[in-house]
Amino acid sequence: MTVYATKGKTMLLERIYDEDLAQASYFIGCQAKGEAIVVDARRDIEVYRDFAAKNGMKIVAVTETHIHADYLSGTRELAAATAAAIYVSGEGGKDWQYEFEADRLFDQSTITLGNISLKALHTPGHTPEHLSFLVTDGAFSNEPGFLLSGDFVFSGDLGRPDLLDEAAGGTDTRFAGAHDLFVSLKEKFLTLPDYVQVYPGHGSGSACGKALGAIPSSTVGYERNFAWWGTYLAANDEAGFIAELLDGQPDAHAYFSRMKRENRQGPAVLGERASLTKLATEDVAASLAADEIGVVDTRHHTLVHQGTVAGALNIPAGNKVASFGSWAVDPESDQRPLVLLAPDSDIATEMWDHLIRVGIDRVAGYITSFDGLPSFTPETLAPADLAGFDTTLLLDVRNKTEHTAGHIPNSVQLNAGRVLWHTDRLPADGAIVSYCQSGVRNSVAASALRRAGFDVVELEGSYAGWADWKHKQNA
């Protein structure tokens, strides 16, 4: 979606949005000089190269707002493909320095492309090294008109300051982070003119905040006057601000810690990737028998429950492949390549594009059916039979906020995005009955746990099905 573009000498600004991870990157180009910079690129980079070619531009620079936790950065990938210069934050102190070669940006550092300038503002809080970029289109005005706010300010919300505790091994860093956010708002954001347009790094659905708005942009004035935090800043109530900010933050997914580490070190550069090829059934069967590969069932969970491949992971095709894949696959502990169920190479390769966004790179190819492979039918349980079933653990894989709002009695909450990394909290023997809200997330988590050796039974209809059954019983 083009958010600001005028033919001629002025600026071209394109928001490129990933619905899967609710992540926004930005393509900013000087039409007079034909040069562009990409901010917060994802790892499947053809979208940027195609957009540059369409508009007759050359990508000469790439940068990012901070060391991301929710996706693997495409900064190095795009720079390698285009010979663009890399710029990253040099702020945050010695513990938050990038470990790969790049030009460092500090508060007030400026990147210039023709008529366009991007001024870095150090806006810590979400992370210590976080930068926002104040953008000026010199062909239109000498004053800045746009702020790429990264994970600092969202539409209606702020970046969470607790991820360093949740995903990077910190201890109570959330309080210092919340303080830093308060100061960044007061000294950086609220000193900008109200007309400055704000373009955040995430939208609704991201786990980088608790109440992100779905609208793609805002203004400084709108956020000042109507965002929840405005009242606290106006009253200079830092204690109230911190308490409200930290309350009710969503579960952080376990793969976030891997993203933090790899993004700091520098994600591996994949280079040009060929389209995935169809594999022979007999070869897949032999590799399965030797435990050399993993199979991904990409169908809806209701079809998976009718029969799948023994040991298969359920990662449904669609717009959440990266999200679900990051819950079901830990590429650090399990390096077996994956084989995807897909109707053709284009769809299989598109799924691979999503998987590399979270560092799941090893995909061997695809198959079009499971004929000739060892079959397995996942065990399910009707809500009416739950009370009489020999359950060792009743597992709720929803968010903790969902569990608090209502859950099946005696259930234990462990988020689907964390369960594979916390198997020590699960019984080694006996049946685990698991559920989410409707069954989709539960099928992903249950398939991952079965592949890890656990006996998992999925509750039919999950919590919604149980609640409906309970309501009928009480009617």
Structure notes:
- The protein has 3 domains: 264 residues, Metallo-beta-lactamase, Chain A (4-Layer Sandwich); 96 residues, Rhodanese-like domain (Oxidized Rhodanese, domain 1), CATH 3.40.250; 95 residues, Rhodanese-like domain (Oxidized Rhodanese, domain 1, 3-Layer(aba) Sandwich), CATH 3.40.250.
- A 7-stranded mixed beta sheet has the order 1-2-3-4-5-6-7, with helices on one face. Strands 8-9-10-11-14-15 form a 6-stranded mixed beta sheet. A 5-stranded parallel beta sheet has the order 22-26-25-23-24.
- The longest helix is centred in the middle third of the chain and has 17 residues.
- With 475 residues, the chain is an alpha/beta fold.
- It is globular and about 70 Å long.
- Strand 2 and strand 3 form a beta hairpin.
- 28% of the residues lie in helices and 23% in strands.
- It contains 15 helices and 26 strands.
